[in-house]
Task: structure prediction
Amino acid sequence: MATLLLFFVFLNLDLLLRTGHCRETRDQILSITPKTQEHVDILRNVSTQYETALWQPVSPQYIKEETQVHLFVPANSSETVKNLLQRHAVTHEVLLANANELIEMQTRNDSTDPRSGSTFYERYHSLEDIYYWINRTAHDNPNTVKVILVGSSYEKRPLYVLKLSFNNRTNKKAMWIDCGIHAREWVSPAFCLWFVHYSLSFYNINQDITHILDNMDVYVLPVLNPDGYKYSWTSNRMWRKNRSISKTTSCIGVDLNRNFDANWCTEGASHNPCTEIYCGMFPESEPESQAVANFLRSHKDTVQLYLSIHSYSQMLLFPYSCTLEEAENHRDLLEMAQEAAQKIRRYYRNTYRYGAGAKTIYLAPGGSDDWAYNLGIKYSFTFELQDRGRYGFLLPPSHISGACNEALIAVKTIALKVIEKT
Ligand code: ARG
Ligand code: ZN
Result:
């Protein structure tokens, strides 16, 4: 009887909460295209003064007229933000009405869910699962996979690189792929896992991957920013930077892709630790960027191709991002990116834009791609995987296979070209 009573009380409470209109209970993604400078300024205010997360562009300074802004608005600031926009006649479109549900879906461990027919590689994985997978993969493939500890994160988590090596040819070249430099871009680590799995499964079956692995070793860093990745799973899904503590403010984190020594902290990065594009105290001030830089410095004679995987926006970018100047082999890079984008279009009917970073998106100094390029790795690319904003960083797990397969075809196209050219 008592339980029955309780049940009715809860039922009513629930009804009350749900019918109590006005209060938004769900996190949302808004798409807003400012029409005037006033709109631009309002949006800059909203994204800095309120508890929101700017998805696109990366920093408020890049908001401009007639360019779509994607803004993550948590439930508790939804009313205020929408009222403010309305008051200034800034129209918005709701891209995603219920981000909570998506977030919940992505962190659910559905490996035991009988309804889900998805494989391990078609799901997102916690940092712990990825560490476990790294060890398992090396253990199960002792002749082809080795784990290399290249450093540790700010919070002292290990940075593991998997080395795929299918033979001991002399003068063998290599390529590098890193994933997860930005914490919230979850499809990126998923791609690194996908790539390793594909290589191990299709060597001697698929001609292209066989040719690539016969001629190159592959170094894969599945999670460049483990502290941030962990934090995006446990505390804030929209976290981008690492988790290092600043000495001057209470703001946390350095944008690791602004922390490399390539026109470090010039226009397109910020000295302010409270921004998403904080460049850190000095180039390679962060243990994560330093570990990558040290490894590549000591392997620069073999590594010919550098790839860094991000999301979202579907782009294939190459140097420079830190200056508007053209790279010395610009034509080569352009041709390779173009061919890769064409393949994606032909096979997957998806559009990828391509070009030099600074001219294709914005000036963004201190990036790993430019730094690797200046080190002498003349084929250097940053991939921005799916999608173009529909789900943004919250790409549903059901899209992982599509996103990874099309990126894979781009990687193969570019790697084959590099082998051909060198
Ligand atoms: N969205 C990436 C970022 O803002 C783009 C990286 C392009 N390359 C670069 N060096 N900025 O970091
Ligand atoms: Zn990124």
